[in-house]
Structures are given as structure tokens and as C-alpha cells.
Write a structure and sequence with these properties.
This protein is mainly beta. It is built from 2 helices and 12 strands.
Length: about 190
Amino acid sequence: MPDGKGWKGSIGATKLIEKDGAAAIEFNKPGQNVVWLDGFEFSAGTIEFDAKGKSAPPQSSFVGVAFRAVDLATHDAVYFRPFNFRAADPEKKSHAVQYVSEPQWSWQKLRKEKPGQFEKPIEPAPDGDAWFHAKVVVEKRQVKVFVNGATEPSLVVNELSDRPGGSVGLWCNGYGVIANLKIMPNK
């Protein structure tokens, strides 16, 4: 876990904590923060993790993973907006899970130019204040996101990046905790 050894990026935005006897990483700084494995190469495979954010206040908790990461500004990411998991407003609820490919395809650009394609609701909707399990499957040119053991993906997108590989990291904006990270590269 990010203790400065083997990790790069926003180390100062993280704190090592314990979750049910296992190590977890807590983020609690505003702005986009990414920590990634130094010297780790990932092109395709499966990334699983447990995450916890906050349902309130709105816009306070974005939590997920980055892959094919080059640096803080250049990576693909899948992240969750726990404050939208059970939103009463259907439009907000439809913004529960998001794929981005930075720097070319930010969430703002995707929402404006490709509305509804790269962000979706999660059904059944998890509790925005509870732990949830995520599985991100990165295949050639496609990304699928499964939540809490669902057999159907919450999000399926065609990748927007031409990067053949890069590292894997933890991605957060505001408050979030990530534990039990498992990276299974395709062979």
C-alpha cells in the first residue's frame, strides 16, 4: 500500500489505515489524486478492489482506479460517485460510475460530447456510505465494470485511449478508502 515505497503520485494525499484487519488506503484531499505502482506494467486484465466513499455532501467523494497510467495527468480511470448511488434525481443517479481517459477525455468533455455513454447508474444501487466491491475488466479496446458480484456489468465502454499499457493506481477526488486491491494481468 502507498507508504512511499513502490508507489508514485499523490502520496501526500493518502494515509494507511486498517479495514477489518487488512491494510487500506484513505484519501482525504480535494482535487484529483492518483497513486500508482512504480515500475508495474499493465495492458489488459482484471482489477478488483473494495471501496468506500460518502453519500453526502454532494460532490465530496469520487473513488476508483486508474490504469494504463503514465502520470497524474495521463491515464484511464474508472471511478464511482457514491453520492449519486441512490440519488432521487434520475439524472444524478445515472452518473454513479464513470470511465475517463485523461487528458483527452475528461468527464466534462464526455458528458458534453458523448452524453450517457461513459457514465451509468448502478443497479442494484449500493449504499453510498458503505463498502462496495468493484471488478474492472480491461480487455482489448473495451472496459466492463461489475459491482458487488453482479453478473451483468454496470458499465461497458469502448476505450478512448491508444496507450498500449502503463501502470495501475488508486484514483480519488475528495474522500475515499480503497482496500483489497487485486490486479490480475492477462497473460
